């Protein structure tokens, strides 16, 4: 366990968790751009072999980002390695004020909390668990993964994100509050919460008292290592003590191509993607169809968006995608993607990009982020948006 002296203020380590695509990276990027003077050290963990999340936050931080690749932190990564990185970040000469660990969307938060509690670095202290919830997908995700309630029960702050896309935000908030067991619940669009929530979300006295190793050692393997999965992209958890983990049965496919993709073929692939393929992220090179931009792609459930952004001057052109799903035919998907590579990369016809542009942010006003949305930034003082247990009476009363 960590132990500080009165002369060495400890650096809080906040664990940022939440199901696939809930908006963890978006929230983290918001924090990085709105942290005021605070310096945030980041540890990113991806499920797929290509580290898309690390790429998405690295630009903002440079050497204060550490990436722990392929596999859920809760199982595949050596605890010692994480601890070593926490120590390095904590002793960074630039002076880190807080460390945020962005867990993979399939990680078990209690395992991560346990790892941080077990840290041998005297400079760091567990700073709380933040769970991000996708309000639009919450009902379906919870149906498939009832264990989400267990994650919410451990959280110190729950960010109910994507309230712009949810049909019944109030219903989601009610369910979340019930499961969150007294933790603060805050609603957000595009992860825009006041950073003070997170840096202040250190477990309250009461919750520190409640949270012990016994609480988080739900699998009884007690050594803190959480075991290990086999190599490769496959993260099947059967037979190694992690069958109850969120990622049991999930597989990831990593696809990379130095040759440009054909937009029509890729759109056909995306439009016909199988039900179990829950998450796709990465970026695409459409070659002559748009030589200036690469297209970031995000699919979460049936939701799909492309975000064009200019290639860097020296940036190597290419496509990198990670696909995550349950019950998917990994080899088949890889083959299908290979079939989307353009046969004539130097050629482009006029209408080829139409299918892609339908999914570019801004084409759909509902998802368009405008400067006015900044008014939606939730601050701790904003009582209307911070839902606390005390609000319960107010919210419940009208229905009684
Ligand atoms: N409409 C809408 N989209 C959002 C919001 N927050 C995030 N997104 C989008 O949701 C997609 C997934 O967001 P990420 O931040 O990458 O999610 P994540 O939790 O880091 O994903 P994983 O690491 O794969 O688990 C991206 O396309 C985001 O732009 C929101 O509040 N509203």
UniProtKB/TrEMBL annotation:
<keyword id="KW-0378">Hydrolase</keyword>
<dbReference type="InterPro" id="IPR051316">
    <property type="entry name" value="Zinc-reg_GTPase_activator"/>
</dbReference>
<keyword id="KW-0143">Chaperone</keyword>
<keyword id="KW-0547">Nucleotide-binding</keyword>
<dbReference type="Pfam" id="PF07683">
    <property type="entry name" value="CobW_C"/>
</dbReference>
<feature type="region of interest" description="Disordered">
    <location>
        <begin position="370"/>
        <end position="400"/>
    </location>
</feature>
<dbReference type="InterPro" id="IPR036627">
    <property type="entry name" value="CobW-likC_sf"/>
</dbReference>
<feature type="region of interest" description="Disordered">
    <location>
        <begin position="219"/>
        <end position="244"/>
    </location>
</feature>
<comment type="similarity">
    <text>Belongs to the SIMIBI class G3E GTPase family. ZNG1 subfamily.</text>
</comment>
<protein>
    <submittedName>
        <fullName>GTP-binding protein</fullName>
    </submittedName>
</protein>
<feature type="compositionally biased region" description="Basic and acidic residues">
    <location>
        <begin position="230"/>
        <end position="239"/>
    </location>
</feature>
<feature type="compositionally biased region" description="Acidic residues">
    <location>
        <begin position="370"/>
        <end position="394"/>
    </location>
</feature>
<dbReference type="InterPro" id="IPR011629">
    <property type="entry name" value="CobW-like_C"/>
</dbReference>
<feature type="domain" description="CobW C-terminal">
    <location>
        <begin position="250"/>
        <end position="341"/>
    </location>
</feature>
<dbReference type="InterPro" id="IPR027417">
    <property type="entry name" value="P-loop_NTPase"/>
</dbReference>
<dbReference type="Pfam" id="PF02492">
    <property type="entry name" value="cobW"/>
</dbReference>
<dbReference type="InterPro" id="IPR003495">
    <property type="entry name" value="CobW/HypB/UreG_nucleotide-bd"/>
</dbReference>
């Amino acid at each position: 366990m960590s132990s500080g002296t009165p002369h060495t203020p400890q650096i809080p380590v906040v664990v940022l968790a939440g199901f696939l695509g809930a908006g963890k990276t978006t929230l983290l990027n918001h924090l990085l751009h709105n942290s005021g003077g605070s310096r945030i050290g980041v540890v990113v963990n991806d499920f797929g072999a290509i580290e898309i999340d690390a790429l998405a936050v690295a630009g903002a931080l440079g050497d204060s980002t550490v990436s722990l690749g392929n596999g859920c932190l809760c199982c595949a990564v050596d605890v010692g390695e994480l601890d070593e990185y926490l120590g390095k970040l904590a002793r960074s000469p630039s002076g880190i004020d807080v460390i945020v660990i962005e867990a993979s969307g399939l990680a078990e938060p209690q395992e991560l909390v346990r790892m941080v509690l077990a840290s041998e670095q005297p400079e760091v202290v567990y700073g709380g668990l933040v769970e991000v919830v996708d309000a639009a997908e919450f009902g379906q995700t919870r149906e498939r993964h009832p264990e989400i309630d267990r994650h919410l029960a451990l959280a110190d702050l729950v960010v109910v994100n994507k309230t712009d896309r949810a049909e019944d935000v109030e219903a989601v908030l009610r369910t979340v509050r019930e499961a969150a067991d007294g933790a603060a619940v805050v609603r957000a669009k595009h992860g825009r919460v006041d950073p003070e929530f997170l840096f202040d979300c250190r477990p309250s006295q009461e919750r520190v008292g409640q949270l012990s190793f016994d609480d988080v050692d739900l699998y009884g393997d007690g050594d803190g290592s959480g075991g290990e999965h086999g190599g490769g992209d496959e993260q099947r958890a059967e037979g190694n003590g992690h069958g109850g983990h969120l990622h049991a049965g999930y597989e990831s496919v990593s696809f990379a191509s130095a040759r440009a993709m054909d937009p029509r073929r890729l759109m056909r692939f995306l439009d016909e993607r199988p039900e179990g393929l829950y998450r796709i992220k990465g970026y695409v090179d459409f070659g002559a169809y748009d030589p200036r931009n690469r297209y970031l792609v995000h699919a979460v459930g049936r939701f799909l968006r492309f975000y064009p952004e200019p290639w860097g001057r020296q940036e190597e052109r290419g496509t990198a995608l990670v696909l995550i799903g349950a019950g998917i035919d990994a080899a088949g998907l890889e083959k299908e993607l290979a079939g989307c590579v353009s046969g004539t990369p130097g050629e482009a016809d006029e209408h080829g990009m139409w299918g892609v542009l339908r999914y570019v942010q801004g084409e759909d006003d509902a998802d368009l982020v405008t400067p006015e949305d900044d008014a939606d930034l939730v601050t701790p003082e904003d009582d209307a948006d911070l839902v606390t247990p005390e609000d319960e009476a107010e919210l419940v009363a009208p229905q009684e």
